[in-house]
Amino acid sequence: MKIPFLSLLVLCAACASSKFIVPLKVSPSEITGTLPVASATPKDTPGLLLASDPGGTINFFSMVDNLEGDSGRGYYMELLIGTPPQKMNILVDTGSSNFAVAGSPNPDVKTFYDSKLSTSYQHLNTEVTVRYTQGSWTGLLGKDVVSMPKGVNGTFLINIASILQSDNFFLPNINWQGILGLAYSTLSKPSSSVEPFFDSLVQQRNIPDIFSMQMCGAGQPTPGNGINAGSLVLGGIEPSLYKGDIWYTPITEEWYYQVEVLKFEVGGQNLNLDCTVYNSDKAIVDSGTTLLRLPDKVFNAMVDAIVQTSLIQNFNAEFWAGLQLACWDKTQQPWNYFPDISIYLRDTNTSQSFRLTLKPQLYIQSVLTLQESLNCFRFGISHSASALVIGATVMEGFYVIFDRTEKRVGFAVSSCAEVSGITVSEIAGPFGTSDVSSNCIVRNPLREPIMWIISYSLMSLCGIILLVLVILLLIPNRHRRDDMETVNDESSLVQHRWK
Ligand SMILES: *[C@@H]1O[C@H](CO)[C@@H](O)[C@H](O)[C@H]1NC(C)=O
Ligand SMILES: *[C@@H]1O[C@H](CO)[C@@H](O)[C@H](O)[C@H]1NC(C)=O
Question: Membrane topology per the record (predicted)?
Fold first, then answer.
């Protein structure tokens, strides 16, 4: 009996400690002090005729340029919350599923949502905590009406968490006061019964279950001026935001936007790792993560390959680790020294793949400094202990379509992925998949619903066994006491019972 009991305990410890961790959020900008005012670079105004409106009810064109911000501090959208409306800027995050706003004053936010001032607020008396790879918050769940000045017409009743306490979530110099989680209800806290914002929108307005995002920070120094930085198109696809074809990859599981990465190339050379490594323990598309994050093994292979392919051999390790900037004379552009990076994703035709190519302009990122004569850059790729995250570094090159109806994520070259007239992203396909495994995703068994049921059953079993043990331990104890044979030493008691 002893051995099975022990192994059950180990298993239960494993299930108790496995909890959802939402990936890294926006990284704090390392640059402090007064920022030079950069001149605005207005995006090409797309032609009105290109705006699509298949259902005749949504005006996608009104959503073009509805985002502000940058990759370092996040892309955000203006929302009006409550009655009378309180204006808030809300970070757009495809890596989580709660809608939450600052509900009390915080030194890092300019304003907060005061539910007491809203006549339409309904409180639900439930506390909720959400942890991200970076930062966390705790708040109170409620419902209130929300409308979008540059989004879908109308007013919607939405679950809102008012953040009352947070740790490393709001950051200095951010211009947003809340977060809009656009992933699936599976990730909602405290449970999946808290309907996410976009699900409510689809329900209440009957729009197609699809949204798309364009992030326009490519080539802009971070932190930038963040004006007209991108678009979140709710309910469809806006043709003026991309060029060429859209390539789709299946959503392998509906929680994060999890996809299957098949291969990496650096300067045309295959990194040649086992493809399961690229998906350990998951590969996700997350607008709320600043960088392209790679599992340690992949990251190390990638840095080695870039060092070998680049024309600069003497980079110090601190640059790759993200701890130092690399600076060049203002007359020089460093991008010619670096290779292209390609990510191969499985196509919806699973015997094919397509590739996203990042020019160095996307991953060697200009950073504003107070240096007069130098242009400084950071490495836009970092390592990760838990996941491969296709964050803003990649998304800034592409118009990304989250097609929940068809369970797929689409990529097309973004109309704003240009730096000094050069397009900094490419997309190509189809390619064969005979050189990779037919399945690169090793399922984490605890993620499968059936395994959850089994582990919960085992946990209950542990509990019952524990209870029986306690009772068994107590009964003889009492007997002995009755016999005036007091056993005070608990450990000897246990030894007696188990020997
Ligand atoms: C919203 O409704 C108003 C008035 O009905 C209309 O003028 C406007 O074009 C609509 N906007 C969108 C985005 O559908
Ligand atoms: C999928 O791709 C394979 C290999 O290129 C091709 O032979 C097949 O016809 C494609 N299937 C569909 C449904 O397009």
Answer: Single-pass type I membrane protein
Ligand 2 atom 14: residue of nearest CA: 349
Structural tokens at position 76: 């955000």
User: Is 296 tagged catalytic?
Assistant: no
User: What is the rounded end-to-end Cα distance, in angstroms, of the chain?
Assistant: 12
Pairing of strands 388-390, 398-403: unpaired
Of the residues 48, 57, 59, which should be mutated to test ligand 1's pocket, given the most ligand atoms within 8 Å of the CB?
59
What does the alpha-carbon distance between residue 328 and residue 366 come to, in Å, rounded to a whole number? Answer: 11
d(CA 236, CA 238) in angstroms, rounded, equals: 7
Spell out the SS3 assignment of 433-486.
CCCCCCCCCCCCHHHCHHHHHHHHHHHHHHHHHHHHHHHHHHHHHHHHHHCCCC
pLDDT, tens digit, 9 for 90 and up, residues 289-311: 999 999 999 999 999 999 988 87
DSSP-based three-state secondary structure for 333: coil
Cβ of 155 below 6 Å from ligand 1: no
Structure-block tokens of residue 485: 């044979």
Annotated active-site residue 482? The verdict is no
Interaxial angle between packed helices 449-482 and 2-17, expressed in degrees from 0 to 180 and rounded to the nearest 10? 130
State how far Cα 119 lies from the chain centre.
33
Kindly give the distance from the C-alpha atom of residue 276 to the centroid of ligand 1, in angstroms, as a whole number.
Answer: 47
132, 268, 325 from 309: Cα distances, Å: 35, 10, 20
The per-residue pLDDT for range 249-290, each reduced to its tens digit, is 999 999 999 999 999 999 999 999 999 999 998 999 999 999
Closest CA relative to residue 216, chosen from 230, 231, 232, 237: 230
The answer to whether residues 234 and 151 touch, using CB atoms and an 8 Å cutoff, is: yes
Q: Specify the ligand 2 atom closest to the Cα of 349.
A: 1
The number of the ligand nearest the C-alpha atom of 350 reads 2
105 C-alpha vs ligand 1 centroid, how far in Å?
34
Q: Whose CA is nearest to atom 9 of ligand 1?
A: 59
